[in-house]
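Every protein is a chain of amino acids, and every chain bends into a shape of its own. The fold becomes a row of whole numbers, each drawn from a learned catalogue of backbone shapes. The protein below has been through that process, and both of its lines are reproduced in full.
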Amino acid sequence: MRQASLKIVRQENSSSVFWSIYVPAYLNPSGKAGKMYFSTRAEAESKRWELLAATRTESKITELSNPQIRDAQRALERLAEAGLTISLDRAIELALPVLRSAGSNITIAQLFAEFAELKASEWSEHSRKNFKYASAAFNIQFSTRLLSSVTGREIRAWLTSQYNTPGTQANVMRTLRPAFSYAVRQEYISFSPFSKMELPRVRKKNAIDIFTPDEARRLMETAPEDCRAAYAMLLFAGVRPTELTRLTWSCVRDGFIHITPAVAKTAQVRNIEIEPNLAAWLAASGPHAPSERICPPWWKHKNQLTRREAGLSNRPDTARHSYATYYLATHQNADALKANLGHSRGSDILFMHYRAAATPKDAERYWSILPSPVSANHG
């Protein structure tokens, strides 16, 4: 198929100036060769682009597969839906500067791989698994998509189709969002598709569960002697259950529980101040080798039996919630509490999920839970 020149010619008569293009028969809607006339050069230029696109399409059409033809048809439909009456060739020409911009050739899968490698030394095992599972699910739909082409609307639709609850959707957003923020810092994209997305609202159906002072005392009194230090750290320091299983006695020193990167859920160091009653419980547990774990052998089994015997089963986060509630009621220091819990200073997690209302009198009773003289002397 020959390539038409479609030269624009300036013409004039005694009263006006106009423009013409000689159009061969195979491009002319009339089926006959002839000239097309235009009152302005801009109109002639626009038509020339349209005709050039048609001749290029005509010369390549026999080389296109059926999926490519369908893709071209869909692209034309999308242009029409947007109110753009331009050819595919013209649309591509307009889009090329954007496509050539920094990072536009990076796919979602490439971004996730790069981000995971960068963060490998910083993440805890928990964080690594969270990102692994969330990114794998996201990659099923978006792995080959160019980073610059994914929109917040598409991500929102994907979240609602994959996850039933707002809480899970919010957690996945928090897990994936840092990778896109990293892409912005690297100038792979100019803005993150997450930047205009609101976290789904999580409405708690029930009040936050905490132990009453009597329940906390009953749990400590029911616990076997080798488990009391572990329960004291849950109740009076708010240590996360997963962190507790990694803690050794070497982490307890100088009036603090030192949560190291190897122990912490978020791989961030923090020091939890030891309250006076917690110090008494730790001292009563007796001397321990630095390498010895806080949790005794068969901790999981003993924990289940102890909670069942105390009538406090199926309340997994209650000890941490109790610590946050009674600490805030006593000290009135939200920033110190956030630091002890491992929350960032600007986080609202504490006031949304981690504390209930407690009176100063209840808090005083809670922090007065101490080992019996027999237990203390035994240590």
Observations:
- The radius of gyration is 34 Å.
- The longest helix spans residues 41-60.
- The chain has three domains: 8-99, 108-185, 213-378.
